[in-house]
Specification:
The protein is mainly alpha-helical. It has six helices and two strands. It has a two-stranded antiparallel ribbon with strand order 1-2.
Length: 148
């Protein structure tokens, strides 16, 4: 079994990694960095191979979730809203992935019925909780540190 993200979730994680790596290395003097170490949407897209047509949508999700601060204008860009050590993967995934759909029953293929759960419900609920717990324990800083 594989845990997968939607493209939007995948791109959100990549964008946050680009910002965290940029903050970690302090490469604010390069041509793609703006004032205060901000990165442009184009620089994030190029560094992390995110299609340009998606990067603005993903960054909007991250700004709305207060994980990223953005500034507009010619010298604008994006930076982390707080230290990478205070941002975990679950926060990023939750910012980008759709959370509004009710959980689907594994056996019936329809939304779970709160009155009568299927035989597999508890096992899959526990697995989902375990994945979410692991994502909440993994910070952006730990991912950046692991790469350097």
């Amino acid at each position: 079994m594989r845990v997968t993200l939607t493209l939007r979730g995948d791109y959100a994680v990549r964008a946050m990694l680009a910002l965290a790596q940029h903050e970690h290395t302090g490469d604010g003097d390069d041509a793609t960095a703006g004032p205060d170490g901000r990165l442009s949407a184009a620089a994030i897209a190029a560094r992390m191979r995110i299609p340009g047509r998606f990067v603005a949508h993903v960054l909007s999700d991250l700004v709305r979730a207060e994980l990223v601060v953005g500034s507009t204008g010619r010298r604008g860009g994006y930076r982390l809203a707080r230290p990478a050590s205070a941002i975990d993967l679950l926060q990023i995934v939750d910012a980008a992935e759709r959370q509004g759909d009710p959980p689907r029953c594994v056996l019936r293929g329809i939304p779970c019925d709160p009155q009568g759960r299927c035989a597999a419900h508890d096992a899959f609920s526990a697995a989902t909780a375990a994945v979410r717990a692991e994502l909440s324990r993994t910070t952006l800083a730990s991912l950046v540190d692991a790469r350097h």
